[in-house]
Amino acid sequence: MNVKKFTAATSREALRKVRDALGPDAVILSNRPVDGVVEILALDNDDVASLASPAPESEMAQPQPRLALDAFDQEAPAFVNRRGGAPAVAPEHVFARRAAKAEPAGFVPDFAPEPAFTSLRAPAPVAAPVEPAFDMAAMTKMMQSAIAQAKESAAQEMTGMMSELRAMRGMMESQLAEISWGSTQQREPQKAAVLREMLGAGFSASLSRYLIDKLPANKDAAEAMRWVKTVLARNLTTMADEDALLDQGGVFALVGPTGVGKTTTTAKLAARCVMRHGADKLALITTDAYRIGGHEQLRIYGKILGVMVHSVKDEADLRIALKELKNKHTVLIDTIGMSQRDQMVTEQVAMLAGAGADVKRLLCLNSTSTNETLNEVVRAYQGSGLHGCIMTKLDEAASIGNVLDVMIRNKLNLHYISNGQRVPEDLHLADRAMLVDRAFRSRRDAGSQFDDADLGVLMAGTGNLNADSSLRGVHLG
Questions:
Q1: Per residue in 32-84, pLDDT tens?
Q2: Which residues of 294-304 are buried (b: 16+ CB within 10 A; e: fewer)?
Q3: Coil, strand or helix: which one is 413?
Q4: Which CATH architecture has domain 237-429?
Q5: What does DSSP assign to residue 214?
């Protein structure tokens, strides 16, 4: 047996020397540090046959007597590898050598000898320990719960990210709009003058900026103002022929918030119908059973006109009343007034839609309300669609650009204008040019309200006009 010794500064270098000298099939007998270097004893693979077990009948095959090292066997059956490797079982000749040197039991060497006959080839795979049985259903449930939590967490993160992106987009649009307006204001100062007029008349900043952006070039302030008035009048939709409405007849319901003037306007319309077709062709219905004196007010008007007033409480009563009055040429319904934020508004719209007849809803808009309030009213009462609207309290409004703005952007058909309490005198047909002209004549002192810095801030608040669907239907000429 030809055992060779190899030394090197590191194990890697020593193993390389073994491979170069004996080949990749060499057998490592020992691997230990000696005086600061690594010493490896190796044997060529062809010499392994000399280490074969002796024949069973030979003397060498008989068991050798063992020394009494019970304490060592019990307390330390395997050497501990201080370098972090797996424990190696001590071979018999190591025990014999320690017994000859009379080393005490439990002695642990400075290094753990490597197992004999270690090959440079990859070690054979060790059989994995048998895993205990587990509940597949519990494991599946645990995985599903983990997946659900991961999805929920991802959805929350995505929602937060989208909110941040929208906020960033809004800020960028506002800043860009302000920068753009500042540049426009320097190049075309007449646009700033027109913008002040529109804002002072009560028109919204978004509609005002939209028209200012579309304003033709090379126009002075007076020409630009005339162009804006023409566009506003063109986009106001009014009832073209009152005779067609009165002659056609049908069922009309006046709807709107509390105090907008529905009952008085109903009486004015009733007087027009009586003057056209007579009292026997008209019927009045009221659903206002809650407001004190609401029913009596309409009954007094009906008594003056010679018209019967019917009171209903719910959809079933309304169905019965309309069926009994189907021979009437015109039926006017005075509905109960409620806030546009009241959930009963939806129930009222559903009641009128399910009354078993084609009930045309006319929305009463208070001219003294703000632009934001009027937009809320339209959204609340619109339902499946409004037949038209009536502008009320015109005599009390300081400016009417707000209500004109709402009608233009929501494409509402203006039927009548109410400007007082007299029945039936204070009810008029709408004149588009007159209304637009009045909006600018009755405006507040816009010059003292808005300076150049205010205009920039207002323009920044309009954001991206292309995303405003209410402006897409505004016709320019």
A1: 888 888 888 887 877 765 655 555 565 555 655 554 444 444 444 444 444 44
A2: bbebbbebbee
A3: strand
A4: 3-Layer(aba) Sandwich (3.40)
A5: H
CB atoms within 10 A of CB 253: 25
Q: How far apart are CA 123 and CA 108, in angstroms?
A: 26
Q: Can you give the length of the chain in residues?
A: 477
Rounded (10°) CA dihedral 323, 325, 327, 328: -150
| 190 close to 224: Cβ distance less than 8 angstroms | yes
- Cα 467 → chain centroid: 16
391 and 430 Cβ atoms separated by less than 8 Å: yes
Provide the 3-class DSSP secondary structure of residue 20. helix
Long-range CB pairs of 98-107 (<8 Å, 24+ gap) are 98/69, 99/67, 99/69, 105/69, 105/70, 105/71, 105/72, 105/75, 105/76, 106/71, 106/72, 106/75, 106/76, 107/72
Q: Which residue has the tokens 């009152």?
A: 242
320, burial (CB in 10 Å: exposed 0-12, middle 13-18, buried 19+): middle
Q: What angle do CA 469, 470, 473 make, to 5 degrees?
A: 95
Q: Phi and psi of 390, rounded to 5°?
A: -130, 125
What whole-number distance in Å separates Cα of residue 363 and Cα of residue 389?
Answer: 4
Tell me if 332 sits within 8 A of 284, measured CB to CB: yes
Exposed/middle/buried for 469, CB within 10 Å: 0-12, 13-18, 19+? exposed
pLDDT tens digits, 216-255 = 877 888 888 899 999 999 999 888 778 888 888 889 999 9
Summarised one tens digit per residue, pLDDT across range 311-363 is 888 888 888 989 999 889 999 999 888 888 888 888 888 888 888 788 899 99
**Residue whose tokens read 């209500």:** 403
Give residue limits of the domains in the chain.
3-119, 237-429
Residue-wise pLDDT for 88-121, tens only, equals 444 444 444 444 444 444 444 444 444 444 445 5
CA-wise closest residue to 390 among 423, 412, 422:
412
**pLDDT at 232 (0 to 100):** 92
User: What values do phi and psi take at 208, rounded to 5?
Assistant: -60, -45
What lies within 8 Å, CB to CB, of 41 at 6+ separation is 3, 4, 5, 6, 28, 29, 30, 31
For residue 79, the model assigns a pLDDT of 42
Single out the residue of 44, 2, 48 nearest to residue 21, CA to CA: 44
Dihedral angle computed from the Cα positions of residues 217, 220, 221 and 227, in that order, rounded to the nearest 10 degrees: -50
* DSSP for residue 56: T
